[in-house]
Amino acid sequence: MSDAAPRLKSLVEQLLGAPLSVRVRAWDGSQAGPPGAPTLVVRNRRAVRRLLWKPGELGLARAWVAGDLDIEGDLYAALGMLAGFVWERGEDARSLAQALRDPEVRAAVRGLLVLAGSPLPPAPPREEVRRPRRRLHTKHSDKRAISHHYDVGNDFYELVLGPSMVYSCAYWPAPESDGGTLETAQRDKLELVSRKLALKPGLRLLDVGCGWGSMAIHAAREHGASVVGITLSHEQAAYARKRVADEGLTDRVEIRVQDYRDVTDGPYDAISSIGMAEHVGSQRYLEYAENLLQLLKPGGRLLNHQIARRPQRDESTYDIDEFIDAYVFPDGELAPIGTTVTQLERAGFEVRDVESIREHYALTLRRWVANLEADWPRAVQLTSPGRARVWRLYMAASALAFERNRIGVNQVLAVKTPESGRSGLPLRSRTWN
C-alpha cells in the first residue's frame, strides 16, 4: 500500500498544529496535499530521520543539501509556505521537553519514527562545516571561514554573479520594478559608494573585503583614486590582480591578502567596507571600527555597507541561523542597524547618513538564483551537487527574508570629524559631492 505521503503530511500537521500548504510526494510514489501547489518531494526515509534527529531549520537544510528533499514548482512559493514553520514559530516555540508533554505531539513523533525506519541519525552532508566554536573571530578562524565561503571557485562565482563580479546588494533604478540589468545595477551601486566617499583623483581609498576587485577598479578607473584592496581569500586576490592588470591599473590599484587588523600604512582619505562587516563578529566590532578610524585622515569618510537583522526584545537570547552558520557563512553574525551605528560612534566616528536598500537585495538575489538555475549542470560540475544546492537554497531563502523584512541592508556613511567640527559633507544630504 502506497500511503507514505498522506501519513507524513498528517503527522507533520499534527506535530506542528497547523496545515501544510505544500503538496507532498513520498518515496513510494504517493502524493497528498492541494493539487497545483508546489510539491515537497521526500525522496527517502532518511529525510524523515534527519528531521527527527535535528528538528527545525538545520534538519530541513541537511535533507535538502543531501538531496533527500527537493521542491518541484515555484521554489519561492514553496519556501514562503514553509517559512512560517521556521521563522514565525522559531522565536517563541516551546522547548522539545515541553512539547513532548502533549499527547498529540508524542503520538505524531511515534508515527514519524515508524515512517523513518532505522533509528540511527544520518551523517551530515560533507558540505557542512564542523569545527570547535571555542575561539571565534581570531585571525586564523576568520581566514578559515572566509576560505570556506569564497574559495568555492572563481568560475562558479562568475556563473552566479555575472560579469560584474560584485557579491553584494546591487542598486536598482526602481525597486518595485524588474527593469534594468544586474551589471548596470551593480555599476550604479559602486558609483553610489564612490559619490558618498567623494572620491577624486589623488585620494587614497582602502577597500576592506575587496572581493574580486570590482570596487577598487571602479574607484581607480572612474574617479582616479589610488586604491588598496584587501581580502583573506587567495583565490579572490589572484582574480582581482588579473583584472587590475587587464584594465591597465596596476599603478593605481594594489590587491593584498591581508587582515584588516594588520593594515598599518594609513592614513587613507576614504574606506569602503562592502559586505565585509558581517564577518567581524559582535565581540570584535568595536575593535573593527576603531581600527578603521585610526586608518583615516581627519575628515576621512567610511562607507559601511552591511546586512542587518531585526532587534529582539531580549538580545541575550539571540541565536545564530543554523543553516547559514553550518553551510554558508561560518561564524558570521548579523546585528541590528542601531547596534552598528552605536558601535561606530563609540569608536569615534560621526554617523552622517543611513540608507536602507533592503528591497534592492531581494532583487539582486533573485537575479543570482536565476543565473544559477539557468546553468545548473555547469554549476554542479564546478562545485558539487550538494554545494550547488546550498547556494540555491541560501539565495532564494535570503531573497524572501529581505522581501518580508526579516533582514535588511544599510549603507552607513560615517566621518572622522576633525576637532574643528568641519565634516566636509554637503549641507543638503544625499547630494554626495
UniProtKB/TrEMBL annotation:
Its EC number is 2.1.1.-. InterPro entries: CFA/CMAS (IPR050723), CMAS (IPR003333), MeTfrase_dom (IPR020803), SAM-dependent_MTases_sf (IPR029063). The keyword Lipid metabolism applies. The keyword Protein biosynthesis does not apply. Residues 121-140 are annotated as: Disordered. It comes from the Bacteria. One of its GO terms (molecular function) is methyltransferase activity. Coiled coil: none annotated. Residues 156-400 form the Polyketide synthase-like methyltransferase domain. Pfam families: CMAS (PF02353). Residues 131-140 have a biased composition (Basic residues). Keywords: Lipid metabolism, Methyltransferase, S-adenosyl-L-methionine, Transferase. One of its GO terms (biological process) is methylation. Belongs to the CFA/CMAS family. PANTHER family: CYCLOPROPANE-FATTY-ACYL-PHOSPHOLIPID SYNTHASE. This is Class I SAM-dependent methyltransferase. It comes from Streptomyces cellulosae. The lineage of its organism: Bacteria, Bacillati, Actinomycetota, Actinomycetes, Kitasatosporales.
